[in-house]
Amino acid sequence: MSIAPAVSFDVEALRADFPILATKVHGELPLVYFDNAATTQRPRQVIQSLVDVYEKHYANVHRGIHWLSEQSTDLYAEAREKARAFVNARQPEEVIFTYGTTEGINLVARAWGDANVRAGDEILLTEMEHHSNLVPWQQLAARTGAVLRYVPFSQEGLLELGELPRLLTGRTKLFAFTAASNVLGTINPVADLVRQAHEVGAIALVDAAQSAGHQATDVQSTGADFLAFSGHKLMGPTGVGVLYGRRELLEAMPPFLGGGSMIRRVTLDGFEPADLPARFEAGTPPIVPAIGLGAAIDYLRGVGLENVHRYEQLLTRRAHEVLASVKGVRIFGPAPDQKSSIVSFTLEGVHAHDVAQLLDRQGIAVRAGHHCTMPLHKKLRVAATSRASFYFYNTLEEVDRLGPALEEVKRRFRRT
Amino acid sequence: MEDIYQERILDHNEQPYHRGKAPRPTHAHQDDNPLCGDFVHVDLTIDQDGKVQEAWFEGDGCCISQAAASMLMEAIEGRSVDDLKRFTAEEMLKLFGPKLTPNRQKCCLLAWRVVQTALYSPISSAGPRGPEGDA
Hints:
The complex is a heterodimer of chains A (416) and B (135). With 416 residues, chain A is α/β, with parallel strands linked by helices. Chain A has 15 helices and 17 strands. Chain A has helices spanning 11-15, 44-57, 67-87, 101-116, 135-144, 164-167, 190-199, 219-222, 247-252, 287-303, 305-324, 352-360, 374-380, 396-400, 402-412, and strands at 24-25, 29-30, 32-33, 95-98, 122-126, 147-151, 172-178, 203-207, 226-230, 241-245, 263-267, 270-273, 329-331, 342-347, 364-365, 367-369, 385-389. Chain A has a 7-stranded mixed beta sheet with strand order 4-10-9-8-7-5-6, sandwiched between helices. The radius of gyration of chain A is 22 Å and the shape is globular. In chain B, a hairpin with a 5-residue loop joins strand 2 and strand 3. In chain B, strands 1-2-3 form a 3-stranded antiparallel beta sheet, with helices on one face. Chain B has 135 residues and is an alpha+beta fold. The interface between A and B is medium-sized, with 18 and 17 residues.
């Protein structure tokens, strides 16, 4: 094993911030939570921020001419500023609060897509996309007659970048891709992909759902035109996400959802939309979840994304070693240094759901199934995989438990 | 909690009863569980008296879905169509044995669902999907 990178945080101290990690499952087993790619857990600082808002500052935002509403509005604006700094957007108006990555991508497909995409235009995606970055474009293609194209991935689970010159052409209107695969773990070269999209005049959308909590996000240095992520995958509450959009693009887009807040003026004959960001935040926004997301961003900043990434590399390397030592395990995706903290695998002769169920009996929570990537699994020629995904509060000792736990699964299935 | 992965179930999973194609099926159906991609295809040979002479299945999926299919094939041969139409999900779970969480009940009930539709799916009128269908 290569030299362990310096980790400048105390994992045990951080774990103490996460009350749920002390849970005993099935009565007596310490919880080993390896389902972080589905959703992370939250530290008490985030939980407390929600309690504080509800106990001390809560009212609706923007409208109330009263003290509480001003407090709530200020906190909501502060959360937007934190999100802006988090993705390094130029202005807070470029940050739209959504309910999650899915809404962010749908918003772009609807509002930008319907206004800009015509029959025969091409949308480029990759074969490793989550359904949330496939279906909205399939719907757009069905509405407009646009054509979808896909960047394939290789045996090792890396995008076939050599195919890009063939696939990115003057017909390509948009290139939408994930920053990190939720199954293969592959970290894609975001800045390079954006640059190549821009070279043919296409817009680039980055699905940052799996990367935002694990590596730095910088829309200016990567040049991303749109970028979406969910709060709950980086310790924030569910029900809130961020869509970053370049100001010129957002300003030229018609509103997505209609209703309160997103208007400047309404008559019986029609409406005039509000300015950014309210234009894309119809109805009462996710006020408290957004404030909680702000607290999660603060917490993550305290830990340091650089530290998180380095430490997760350590966990992922160890996971590869441990899994490779179990006979019958097949690991998907590239080598650990090209991966985020996601390790998907199959165990010969035992279905992924049975693996997950028997790991759960030993206190280890993993996900099994197609992980919302049916085309990816079809290409891998497996119906389902088991997925262990880590966060900075996981330990090497927890990762080590996968080995004997899988041997126990094999023993139960009489596969030893 | 009762053990799902008990010998009887592992045996059905590894050495299933009537896994394959029926020689002369009269009824067939296939369906999948979109949650996990498991699929089961069932061939039934129903005689003139309305009795299931033979029941065969093919499929791919977790131990529970495949063992349940095997148990079901064994259980329905010799029974009448009218009788089987009244065979409830509750009874299927009972036939399987160990108590299952709601998510895993879907695995267990996959073959049962397919059989319930197969009873109404004569091969002549509506061609069945092959087992290679997009599961």
